[in-house]
Amino acid sequence: MEENKNEIFENENEIIPEVTEEEIIEIEEETEKKDWRAFKKGSYSAAITAIFLAVMLVINIFVSVLSDKVNLEFDMTSAKVSSLTKENVEFLEKIEQPVNITFCADETAYAEGMMDTYAQGSNIYGGAEYYEQTIKFVKKYAATNDKINVNFIDTQDSAFAAVTTKYPDESISYGDIIVSAGEGEAERYKKLGFTDIYEVEYNEQYASYGYTMYNVTGSNLETKLSGAIEYAITGKTVRYAVLTGHSKTDYTEDYISMLEQNNHSVSVIDSALITNISSDINVIIIAAPTTDFAPEEIKAIEKFLDNDGKLGKGLIYFADATVPLLPNLSRLLSDWGIAQKEGILFETDENNYMPEMPTAMGLFPDSESALTKNMNIFCTGANSPLSAMEPKSEDITATSIIASTDSVICAPIGTPDSFSDAGKYKKEKYSGLVESVKVIDGIEEKSYIYAFSSAEFIHSQWTQYSNFSNLDIALNVAENAGGAGEAGISFVTKTITNESFSGSVTASKANMVRIVFVFLIPVCTLALGIYIFIKRRNA
Predict the structure, then answer these.
(1) Is residue 306's pLDDT more than 90?
(2) Are 336 and 391 a contacting pair, CB within 8 Å?
(3) Do 165 and 270 belong to one domain?
(4) Number of domains in the chain
(5) Is 174 in contact with 105 (CB distance < 8 Å)?
(6) pTM summary value
(7) Which range marks the domain in which residue 31 is found?
């Protein structure tokens, strides 16, 4: 014990080295630097954690609010048939005046079975999913532009009396949609009924048992609704006349329907001898003529296109390669720079025609024309050899808008698809659409002739395929020929035949997704952030 005590005293008596003031300052500075680095490191971690948590919170709040307001959904269909098209969204966003969409039904009841009950009263079945989709689609219009107002008024509600009073000339039924713009005498409106909105087919299977039954097979809502909005805003109407007196089969049924859906008026002139065409008509259509036009008929067409020197008229011609050349009509076309030869076109590149059908070939844009904007490929059969040539008048310019590849041959009419003697024919490029424009100095309007190489451009055999832009180009041509090309947007019928992803989401699945993303993930992230923050602070 005494020894330990002596050691302690000996240690106390040791001389401790002196530390200079400079060394003390240096030690203090180094200590401060270490503390600052530790504080800085911890602050960064805390800041990053805080920012991450804030972002997660904002995202969850944003999704929750926006989904309630706009009824967000994911469209998983390959053709985006349950979404507004890009062109339609652009059209809707540009609307600057108020537009009212009055839905003659209660919003919830319509989707949950009332429309189905009404439809079954007319022996129409199978539309329940489409009715629910209609409500979602209509609400998307209001979400796209706040100038568009959507009102749901039940036909059983006392407020509905004001609707029937406002439109006394209309027979309004449950589920009808009234689109209007303007006030008082300046108001324009269009009513959309059940068969305007939905595609209905007769059920032949039940007919064999003596029952009358129809099935809902699709929805044309976007085409019809946007077309009605455009009409209500602009009042745009172009008058077309189909000349059928020289055609055995004109293939124009689908074309006429599409023009009417875009608020245009279409009439049929079936006279075998045309001596005058009313100036009230904007565009005449000739499809697959089998007999030639008489000289006086050609003069009537020329007079129509000239329009007493004011121009502003159009002619759309669809050729038929199975018919020999029609001399008088061919002369009119050649005067306008459109050359048509006799024969039928065959594609020799097996990668560019339908299987075992070398006459049914792909055609492609041939010039930088606005008519073919966003279009890639067209497909038709029975193509006549067309090309652009030097017009008779300097006031006329002819341009090839669509063309084949340069591996196409022209064979005699009647050549079978299976023929194997293609080597003796010259391969070259032919036009699928020629645009001929007449412009006179000092005259604001233009007159047009558009010549398609085949009437099958507008035949359902090819227009049913969404990959081909046949109907799109045919509609653009019609709009341009009638002077309506710059007036607004054109709508090719888009039939909705399947449901988007949201249609298969049940309430329980939706709640599960909401719990996971709105509660569990944020809570777990918060707990992880607190753990990391505490651990780094104590490190």
Answers:
(1) yes
(2) yes
(3) no
(4) 3
(5) yes
(6) 0.62
(7) 16-72+514-538
